[in-house]
């Protein structure tokens, strides 16, 4: 018989979700938008601070799409995007008929490389088109080099959309991820650190932008008694039922961050004497990671039959889920025809990297099983 599965990242209920969902049902707020949505936005705004205005939406992808629309990105415009990320960071660029321009990672944070970013910006300007926006990512919950990246963006006056889908609970120099750009986005998809089943949020620094985001997210209804529209509208608002789940979930956010950071220290300990493996760790105290997913790099060794795929299979034999890192966007069939600036960093990380089980509800028994696989594999 197969062992009980251990997954990469499962959600953890607080026990309060039902109460909020029940209230929505009892009061017949089975709607898109509603009191739970307003409350969920308020709780997030208080959590993020920095005078954030939050619009709750039906996904993180919708949030990125709305940010591009609010920045006026149109057909033929160029948008810079970190290459090493999940495809949802880049797809909305195509929804707008715009052109993604991919930039490599740097080895310290695995996120967008400041040097390559500036090279890309200069070259695009030289070629006649200044990028309309930059999509940065705090990959796996690990903050990117915020000061350096934002200094470059400011120098060329290009707005940043901060994809913080994986980084709720992370911070840089004490400021929460998601609050550094003109727009930040969050995801509450089922695998993220808190979930609303499916959901996302757009973070902005002004109430006007929030109002405008709600306008587009609710079919762009002009002010009129009859339904009148002078702009393209979207059905992107969060449902009041999902927001109820979110209100329950936010109660365990800090607990989940703690649990995932504990997972990180567990992996540090397990791999500390294994020379072929490097556990990703943030650079210094400026960076505070929620360690949404714990990741390792495996230096292949042919003689010893060590590589990331063999390790993945060893885990799989024990019914333990692991996964390669995101395959860089510039290597994806759908995106490979677009410009790319960089070297081999993202590709190298992809070739050597593995994401390990990092759920907020990993038990001691789970950890012992994981430890056992690692012990046997590397001996
Ligand atoms: C999950 C994720 C998204 C998209 O969020 P959805 O809510 O699933 O649409 C965007 N970017 C990154 C980096 C993600 O991990």
Q: Could you estimate the helical fraction of the residues in percent?
A: 25-40%
Number of domains: 2
The value of Rg in angstroms is 21 Å
- State the major sheet: 8 strands, mixed
Helix and strand content put the structural class at alpha/beta
SSE blueprint:
Blueprint: H1 17-26, H2 35-48, E1 53-57, H3 60-70, E2 78-82, H4 91-95, E3 99-103, H5 114-126, E4 133-137, H6 146-155, E5 160-163, E6 171-172, E7 175-176, E8 183-187, E9 200-204, H7 207-217, H8 240-249, H9 253-270, E10 277-279, E11 287-288, E12 294-298, H10 308-317, E13 323-324, E14 340-341, H11 345-352, E15 353-356, H12 364-378
Parallel strand pairs: 2-3, 2-4, 3-14, 4-5, 5-8
Antiparallel strand pairs: 1-9, 6-7, 6-11, 8-9, 10-12, 12-15, 13-15
Helix pairs in contact: 1-8, 2-8
The structure holds pyridoxal-5'-phosphate.
């Amino acid at each position: 018989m197969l062992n009980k599965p251990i997954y990469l990242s499962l959600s953890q209920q607080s026990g309060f979700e039902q109460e909020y969902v029940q209230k929505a049902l009892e009061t017949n707020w089975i709607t898109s938008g509603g009191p739970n949505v307003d409350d969920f936005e308020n709780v997030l705004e208080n959590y993020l601070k920095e005078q954030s205005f939050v619009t709750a939406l039906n996904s993180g992808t919708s949030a990125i799409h709305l940010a591009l629309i609010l920045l006026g990105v149109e057909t033929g415009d160029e948008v810079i995007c970190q290459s090493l990320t999940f495809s949802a960071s880049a797809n909305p660029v195509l929804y707008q008929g715009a052109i993604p321009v991919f930039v490599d990672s740097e080895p310290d944070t695995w996120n967008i490389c400041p040097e390559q970013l500036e090279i890309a910006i200069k070259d695009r300007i030289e070629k006649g088109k200044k990028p309309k926006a930059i999509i940065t990512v705090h990959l796996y919950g690990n903050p990117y080099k915020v000061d350096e990246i934002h200094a470059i963006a400011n120098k060329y006056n290009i707005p940043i959309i901060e994809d913080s889908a994986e980084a709720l609970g992370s911070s840089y120099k004490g400021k929460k991820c998601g609050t550094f750009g003109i727009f930040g986005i969050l995801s509450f998809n089922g695998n993220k650190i808190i979930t609303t089943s499916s959901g996302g949020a757009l973070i902005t620094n002004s109430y006007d932008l929030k109002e405008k985001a709600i306008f587009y997210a609710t079919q762009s209804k002009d002010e009129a008694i009859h339904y009148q529209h002078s702009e393209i509208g979207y059905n992107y608002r969060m449902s009041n039922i999902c927001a109820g789940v979110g209100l329950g979930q936010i109660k365990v956010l800090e607990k989940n961050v703690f649990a995932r950071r504990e997972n990180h220290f567990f992996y540090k300990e397990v791999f500390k004497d294994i020379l072929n493996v490097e556990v990703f760790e943030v650079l210094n105290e400026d960076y505070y990671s929620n360690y949404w997913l714990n990741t390792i790099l495996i230096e292949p060794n042919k003689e010893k039959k060590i590589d990331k795929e063999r390790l993945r299979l060893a885990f799989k034999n024990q019914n333990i889920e692991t996964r390669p890192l995101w395959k860089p966007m510039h290597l994806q069939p759908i995106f490979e025809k677009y410009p790319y600036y960089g070297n081999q960093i993202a590709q190298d990380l992809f070739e050597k990297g593995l994401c390990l089980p990092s759920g907020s509800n990993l038990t001691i028994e789970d950890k012992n099983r994981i430890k056992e696989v690692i012990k046997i594999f590397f001996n």
